[in-house]
Design goal:
2 copies of one chain form a homodimer. Chain A has about 300 residues and is an alpha/beta fold. Chain A has helices at about 35-40, 45-55, 75-95, 105-115, 130-145, 160-175, 200-215, 235-245, 260-270, 280-285; strands spanning about 5, 10-15, 20-30, 60-65, 100-105, 120-125, 145-150, 185-190, 220, 250-255. Chain A has a single domain (about 5-275), classed as TIM Barrel (Alpha-Beta Barrel). Chain A is globular, with a radius of gyration of 18 Å.
Chain lengths: ~300, ~300
């Protein structure tokens, strides 16, 4: 049984076929968040702090941390990202005790994150591009951590799912050359917006099944991408997640503060028999105001012990 | 490609793998509805009328009609059900132009419904019990209509999905002896409450896939049974339906007036590429007040033409 172990300072989580779905909180990311980007350049981490606490309070299993801000004062991410990643990781793991996902396209920022993070973080990401394989896989091997493998390569993102499967297989094979086992690779088969490609959902369901059965790997995706450009996106996401989980997807990078999506994930855990005695479902739905959880700003997180 | 054709007076619907999910409205059923049972005994059809219009307004593809009321004045359903079924079918098809599902365990009531219904109704149901096979299949053959086949037999409802599959296969084979093709059989693999049997969801997803791949039949179930006894049932149902649809289920007997479940079905249609150009999704979500549709009592239905 495929199990990807991720660890924080004192805790651990397992990504696996027989585990509750791993919710990787996506909020700590300045991409497309101008106010957050400006805050980070000014050294203001209050939004990061709030996003960390709130996402964990709403049920995130892990938190993604992305320092990909383009400073007005210095447009070179190779210089700005590594120290910012270090600072953000330190801050977040000082607030909450969940495993982190170090998210960058700058290898030096990944390494800065790996040096700083407690436990066993997840690296996000490597692709099938030659230069990325050569830069990222040695880091993954050196730190003995799992990695997200995105199934595009030097030719771009293929619309053909067979090509995306082949890219994933190539990454798994290349990783093996570095001593990285398949159970430490979490493949992102690339969720296209269903509004742009009508078969995108079917493609991903079929790919997830193949990746699980043929490569034995865990899978993830940027879940909200499925609904891009369409009305009532949360309802689409909330249907997509259970369908992907039923196909075998084991994690997603998503917004745990959205109650529709989180409720769908919790119900899917129950229906997949990954919620023993329905305890998590009952807890989430019996607590006073539980159905409203995540709609407001919450200040309490799972604080680090000791 | 398996296609089960059902027809009303002037319309038709297709149950099939490449079709939008067939929502069979469950409301017109006095079982467990004491007020409705009392109304029907008193000859008051106002609730039936409202349930017909409201369910079609909320998006039901078909309507189930069940006349299984036990009269205080006459406890023999063999005497009371056939005339009541006739009256209810006449009323409903006078109000709305959707195919009907004639739901009874009394063969004479099924025949009364078949004599009365316009078009090509769905018979609900036959089981693997010998006496039911012998009584119902000749009716199905005589009227050349499709039938729901529930996978229990004289030994009861098995908790073993392999046994339920075998019962379904037996019904398909017996139906063939009567000249009834597999594409006119809609198998109900029996959805157990997940609160009573933790593997019930996984069982049904696997059974639906097998029934589709090995027997080539359409499938249905009483969807809300999955959440029996648990809190926040609508959220469980709303996750279950997309998962069942992803596994290949093509219809369900459900309450279309519940917006959470109907939104989940519409989103699943979109994600399965059974909503060309996302037109139905956009229509349901762009209309003023669309997201509230079904939360209140609505008086307008798709009225019969001509």
């Amino acid at each position: 049984m495929t199990r990807t172990i991720v660890e924080s300072r004192s805790g651990a989580a397992i990504i696996g076929f027989d585990q509750p779905f791993c919710v990787i909180g996506e909020r700590i990311n300045p991409t497309g968040r101008k106010a957050l980007a400006a805050e980070l350049e000014a050294g203001d981490f209050s939004t990061v702090e709030r996003d960390a606490l709130e996402q964990v309070a709403c049920g995130a299993t892990m938190l993604d941390v992305n320092a990909g801000v383009v400073y007005n004062s210095n447009p070179n991410p190779n210089e700005t990202e590594p120290p910012l990643m270090r600072a953000m990781i330190s801050l977040v793991q000082g607030l909450v005790d969940v495993p982190l996902c170090i998210d960058s396209s700058v290898p030096a920022a990944l390494e800065a994150g790996l040096e700083t993070a407690h436990g066993r973080p997840l690296v996000n990401s490597v692709t099938g591009e030659e230069e990325r394989l050569e830069r990222v896989l040695p880091l993954v091997a050196k730190y003995n951590v799992p990695v997200v493998a995105i199934s595009n390569d030097d030719t771009g993102i293929s619309e053909d799912p067979d090509v995306r499967f082949a890219v994933a297989r190539k990454i798994v094979q290349r990783a093996a050359d570095f001593g990285i086992p398949a159970h430490d690779i979490v493949v992102d088969p690339l969720m296209m917006p269903v509004g742009a490609m009508a078969t995108a959902g079917l493609q991903v369901f079929a790919l997830v099944r193949r990746l699980r059965e043929e490569l034995g790997v865990n899978t993830t995706c940027g879940a909200s991408n499925v609904s891009f450009g369409l009305p009532n996106r949360h309802a689409i996401n909330a249907a997509f997640l259970p369908m992907a989980i039923a196909a075998g997807m084991t994690s997603a990078i998503m917004n745990p503060v959205r109650p529709a999506e989180m409720m769908a994930v919790r119900a899917a855990n129950l229906l997949m028999n990954n919620d023993p005695h329905g305890a998590a479902w009952i807890r989430a739905n019996r607590a006073p105001g539980a159905e409203e959880a995540g709609t407001g700003r919450r200040r309490e997180g799972r604080r680090r012990r000791g």
